[in-house]
Amino acid sequence: MCEREFQGDRHNFPESTNRPLGFTAYPAIIAAVNMTCDILVVGAGLAGMAAALACAHKGASVTLLDNADPAACLEEEFDGRASTIAARPFQMLRRLGIDERLGDRAEPITDILVSDGELSTGVSPLTLHFDADTVGSKALGYMMENRHLRRALYEAVSDHPAVEYLAPVTVVDIKQTALSVSVELSDGRNLAASLVVAADGRESRVRQQAGISVMKTSYRQKAIVTTVAHEHPHNGVAHELFLPPGPFAILPLSQNRSSIVWTDSPRAVDAAMALPEAAFAAELARRFGNMYGTVEPCAPHRAYDLSLQLCETYVDNRIALIGDAAHVIHPIAGQGLNMGFRDAAALADIVTEARATGQDPGIRIEQYGVRRKFDNFVMAASTDILNRMFSTDFAPLKYGRRLGLGLVEQIRPARQFFMREAAGQTGDLPSLFEA
Questions:
Q1: CATH code: domain of residue 417
Q2: Over the stretch 296-339, which tens digit does the pLDDT of each residue have?
Q3: Helices (H), 317-394
Q4: Are 246 and 304 in contact (CB under 8 A)?
Q5: Statement to judge: residues 298 and 349 lie in one domain
Q6: C-alpha closest to that of 70 among 167, 147, 199, 145
Q7: pTM
Q8: Phi, psi at 238, each rounded to 5°
């Protein structure tokens, strides 16, 4: 793909404005500021591309900026990373046409089995089982490799007439005014918009330039992420085994494979990462037992430090934070990307409301902050408590949590609540999440 395709030539917009604005009800502001587009999205990760598409779907013109060369992010080699997309966030991908581009690469999760145990003594008989049929859904969620989801989103962004993708380029400076926000780019250009969306990750430069403070705390845990191929089918079952050092998750992928998220102490993870390939494979097989027959790693394995990170606010003057720029949580429930997709969909609803009232979206951005901060705080706190409660072998707590799993399994309304939570069906659902 030639470089000029990322420099605005693809859509043939007039040089002065790049493209016609989606919002036509505030011409005085447009004339005064000479805006380039309605919304500038900084960061073309999974949440950033989803936000660009969601806002364009609702009628906004969007410029998507990223500091990485797209070709480097679309390599075909599998790096072992995969994501869980809950049923409702996946509905947004359907409405944006992403599911068609994914094809059969999205593996349905039909059941979730939660258990507690120890490697030395095995799994407790008191377990918790979620199934999609109980909540009237075909699947509680879907698993897919990040590379496939990234490519599907990229293709949709590239094909959308209201989205312009500029990369590689870096935001050098941001200037906020009452009427607009402008960014200076590393190539010397200056762009102006009603709203800047920071989707540039946990070390967000946009957030830093806006002066938004962040609360950070380390879990003193690391997670190994990889993928294994196994002899027997997984039948769409996701396993979450809680062990004293941290959870061990086995998540179903296509073609008799499973994604592994192995959480442990930094010392144990570092030791596992230092093992020869054969010894590492043997340790994985030991943790699987006889569940799926022969198990072999089929992707690289990588380790990540785990932490909790929450921003004091999600908005500043005409700036909104989404995804990891706004929040980073423990992977224990696989909800990190789902939270980012909810952010994107909520942002798109702000676009809809602005269009309906003749306002520009930057004026209404405070409402986005109100909607998303509480919802995300509840999820972050829930995963934090869950991890602290299960990542210990303190005897009273250990037996209490096992009893709790057994009780929830027997109380149907409680089990249905947790299943709806797993499927992303609770809370104030944005319009793109509706069936």
A1: 3.30.9.10
A2: 999 999 999 999 999 999 999 999 999 999 999 999 888 999 99
A3: 336-357, 365-390
A4: no
A5: no
A6: 167
A7: 0.88
A8: -100, 130
